[in-house]
Amino acid sequence: MPDEALQTAFEIKTTCDEISRKLLRWHWENKPGEHSLGALLDYIRTRQQESPEYYDRLPDLAGRNSWQQLDTTLCMRVLLDPEKDAARPLDLLGNTEHPAAARRACNAVRTARNEAAHASDRTAAAQAAILFNEAVEALEEGYAGAPLRTSELGQYYRLAEDYLSRCGAKKPIASAAPEEKAPRAAKSGQSTAGRKKEGASGSASRRSSAKQNTSGRSSGGRPQNRKQGGSRNSRARARQKQKQANRTVLLVLLAILAVGLLIRGFTMNWQ
Q1: Which domain holds residue 267?
Q2: Per the confidence metrics, is the pTM higher than 0.70?
Q3: What are the phi and psi torsion angles at 148 (to 5°)?
């Protein structure tokens, strides 16, 4: 592992320890009751007895007589303590203005510190730098103003940029995606509007052409229909005349037949 990446991972771990001490001390000194370091250590010993599984593998508390001797493992174990079996729960994070954001920030700092502490190559160091950058963003959401002033947050952001640069890591750009989506959405909206306009104009032209075709067919078909109607009427009149002529001929033939029968009857009577 290159010395530069190893040094960067160590600095990330050290910075996370510094942030963790600052957060725990601020929470501890803003709670009701005793605010000394000794009271904090006594509270931790009590919680070790009440919840041995949660406080398992905790660093030894013997010989710790200053805040600088507390690391992230110890600080975050106290801050993130669920206190389900505590006789006197403190709910340190619940007393903040944004408890959920504060809990996310503490988890992010602990994750970045653990990654840096166990980094064994350049890739792991780069991952620790990325996690530290995310932790700083979470700290801004949960602790901006108190206990972290704007100047302190700016300092941590500069450190995050430095760690990323030294590890050769690229900062994940979370805010670029919405900005890229906006022009795409605008373009798609413009193309959709264009398609709608084209569709509207096309449908309008099709409707106008359909009207023209319909009017053309209707105007051109009316004289033709008149001609066809006239020819049908003339044929009907001709057939009617033919029927009348046939009836006349039939009547004449019947009359001739009747006269012939009468003449034959008279002739037979005379004989």
Answers
A1: 240-271
A2: no
A3: -100, 115
